[in-house]
Amino acid sequence: MRRFLLVLAFVAFPLALGLVLAGAWIRWEFERPYYGGPPEGIHLNVPRGMNAGQIADLLVARGVVRGRLPFILYLRYADKGRRIQAGEYRFSAPATPRQVADRLIRGDVYFRSITIPEGLTARETIGLLADNALGNLGEMEEALSKTDWIADIDPKAKTLEGYLFPETYRFGRNPGSEAIIKTMVKQFRASFAKIQSEFPKHSELSIPRIITLASMIEKEVKHPEEAPLVASVLMNRLERKIPLACDATIIYAMKLAGIYEGRLGKADLRMDSPYNSYLHLDLPPGPIANPGAVSIRAALNPARTDYLYYVSRNDGTHQFSKNLSSHINAVNRFQKPLAPSH
Question: Which of 12, 39, 230, 286 has an alpha carbon within 20 to 30 A of 185's alpha carbon?
Fold first, then answer.
């Protein structure tokens, strides 16, 4: 019996020691940072449906982890092997197998963020995207003619002007020009529906006219609290069949013609264009920019006022007036020489 116990101890001790050493090695490997890729980093695409072993082989081949075993063991130990998220990842610095696995489990995929400000025209928007290496300018310009994407809400639209919602977007490394524009249109639909739901008894204007009105408000207003007041002036003028006399509409027409140089002169107020709101009654034939949520809310729910005029105070705010004589006094006070009135 004693001999048996000695033999058992002789066999068990090395085995136990081996297990202890193996456990220590695995634990050490779990926490040992490694990166064997190029200094500029790598982009790694993890396809949907790839199993843990295949992912481990890919990580080793691209220099993200030193060996496949610690990575696989960690996934199995944490019971997270089936929760890896497909997508494109970027690696550029040493990381432990645990950190790499946790990134894949979180779905911490690579993306590029860009903020599209309110009030840009469609052309200015795609120019900003192209300047940030997102999409191809020519392809995006072609995508602006895909009015079938909004045919149900604006069947007469000639471009997607007004329907590229200003927002912060997250795109992958190569999202595709058409996909970028389509994402912005999709965001417009979602955002407009949400805003519209806030006003069950909203304006009786059609969606295209609401967005056109909102685009004018966007270009005229610098302080959000004034948006409903500017909306009230424009709506009051529409109801009284008074020309809207909005400088921004002429500037838009000049931009379309490629002749705008940053200044609006008196001669420009006579420009022959359907967007000239000094010469033509009613709203322009379409949006003149891409409005944000504040301007859309104002178009849907203008303030109730008797104002028919407003003029800049040269500090980003406006002086509002109910009649022409009061407006002329405001112009003489805030604008020298006399500026075009609204």
Answer: 230
